[in-house]
Design brief:
Blueprint: H1 2-5, H2 7-18, H3 23-41, H4 56-91, H5 97-101, H6 104-128, H7 134-162, H8 168-188, E1 195-196, E2 205-208, E3 213-218, H9 220-229, E4 233-236, E5 243-244, E6 249-254, H10 265-270, E7 272-275, H11 284-298, H12 306-324, E8 340-342, H13 347-361, H14 366-382, H15 385-405, H16 409-430
Parallel strand pairs: 1-8, 4-8
Antiparallel strand pairs: 2-6, 3-5, 3-7, 4-6
Length: 431
């Protein structure tokens, strides 16, 4: 039962609902219908004695105008949003579609337009059938004026947003924000509030996946409950983002050195949510991969846009500076789930996700190669020993690729000089 109602799963469900275009419009439609009947409640009060009389014909005319115009605007909004989504998938990467479609401004605008249309249709039907008396008509007029004002303000804000929605620069910003949020969450809880995994291989019974897909969420609280019930320990071997398949171990369970266990393995399997796609919320590496894909597409011969790749490299520097910032961590805090061991993310893996593709695809472009070496040098200067080692390794790897790809010796010499500074920075900090 804990697997179903755990807090982590509820948060994941909330993110899923944000990616559905029908959720907000449905809620707004229900509220719009409720507002019409709220106006009827005014007829049961003495409000009619204090408010001016409003002609039913005038209200019906205004509602008719609103109903016809809102349907047109809602249709226009849907068309514009679909075009923006297609642009994001084609100019950036299809993996960014989930983030673009979850844009709050566009969803709120579409919900407002549809809600105003439903409100005007329901109110017009009620008014034409003499459903309201004097107080109800006045209240309906006030509600109609409020809805009309909200529509105008929403439309003005949405026009500014839709002009940029789906554009490459905005898509990069959206992916960067999602990746930064995931990195901060993992930085502040590197073991997901469990115990750090010990360096040796776990002893016990391996629990295997029962379906094919990517691990999207690991319910550490549910694993802790299973471990406490079975008086054992659980070692997580598949973090969010791991590709799972039958025969792929999700975790290792044991309650004694000989590997015997009383832990319910079926409950352990249910604690791992496996889906068809990787997600941004709990998988920081996926955000780095998506940004790298955007840079790779920009460096393709068909696009030939090294400026976008340079922009993505700068984004990576900001993200790794954020990852290296340990100010939000609380030293000495006891783990919340002491029976669950969770491996930490390796900095080398993060660097592989971020820089490998750019170093390969941008090896023949001197400005990209130079900017990449400068970015790695910056990270070597500010990072810890693990980040310095990763920066030095990728600096050497990028230089080797560049030397093979560049035809002009002067270009290769330029990159080689900057790469030497990267290695020097990593060596001096280590020394």
């Amino acid at each position: 039962m804990s697997v179903i109602i755990s807090r982590g799963r509820l948060k994941l469900l909330g993110h899923r609902l944000r990616e559905r275009l029908w959720v907000k419009p449905l809620v707004i439609c229900l509220l719009s219908i409720a507002n019409v009947f709220v106006a009827k409640l005014a007829d049961d009060t003495d409000l009619a004695q204090f408010v001016p009389a409003i002609s039913a014909d005038s209200i019906e005319s205004l509602l008719s105008i609103m109903a016809s115009s809102m349907l047109v605007i809602a249709t226009f909004a849907v068309g514009s949003m679909v075009s923006a989504y297609a642009s994001a998938s084609s100019t950036a990467t299809p993996r960014s579609f989930r983030l673009v479609i979850a844009d709050d401004v566009s969803q709120n605008a579409l919900s407002t337009f549809i809600g105003a249309f439903i409100f005007s249709v329901v109110a017009l039907t009620a008014a034409k059938n003499d459903y309201f008396e004097s107080a109800g008509l006045f209240t309906l007029f006030i509600l109609m004026a409020a809805v009309f004002s909200i529509v105008i303000l929403t439309f003005l804000r949405w026009v500014d947003r839709i002009a940029r929605l789906g554009r490459l620069g905005m898509t990069i910003d959206v992916v960067e924000k999602a990746t930064a949020d995931a990195l901060k969450r993992r930085r502040d809880a590197p073991t997901l509030q469990g115990v750090a995994k010990r360096p040796y291989d776990p002893v016990g019974k391996a629990v295997f996946a029962t379906r094919v897909g990517y691990v999207q969420h690991v319910d550490i609280a549910a694993l802790q409950a299973c471990a406490e019930k079975g008086q054992g320990r659980i070692v997580v071997t598949a973090l969010p983002g791991t590709f799972a398949a039958p025969g792929q171990a999700l975790a290792c369970v044991s309650d004694s050195p000989d590997g015997n266990t009383a832990i319910d393995c079926e409950q352990v399997i249910q604690s791992f949510l496996i889906g068809d796609d990787r997600t941004f919320q709990e998988d920081p590496r996926f955000g780095l991969v998506v940004l790298s894909e955007i840079a790779g597409r920009a460096l393709s011969p068909a696009v030939n846009d090294p400026g976008t790749a340079i922009d993505v490299i700068g984004t990576f520097v900001r993200l790794f500076v954020l990852w290296n910032d340990s100010g939000a961590q609380e030293e000495g805090e006891a783990p919340k789930y002491d029976r669950v061991e969770v491996p930490e993310l390796a900095v080398r893996d993060l660097f592989d996700d971020a820089f490998t593709a750019i170093a390969r695809d941008g090896a023949g472009t001197v400005e990209v190669a130079v900017r990449l070496q400068k970015a790695l040098r910056s990270l070597a200067l500010i990072g810890d020993s693990a980040m310095r080692g990763a920066a030095a390794y990728h600096g050497r790897l990028a230089l080797a690729r560049t030397e093979q790809a560049l035809n002009l010796p002067e270009d290769a010499a330029t990159v080689r000089a900057v790469a030497a500074l990267t290695q020097t920075a990593a060596f001096e900090r280590t020394g």
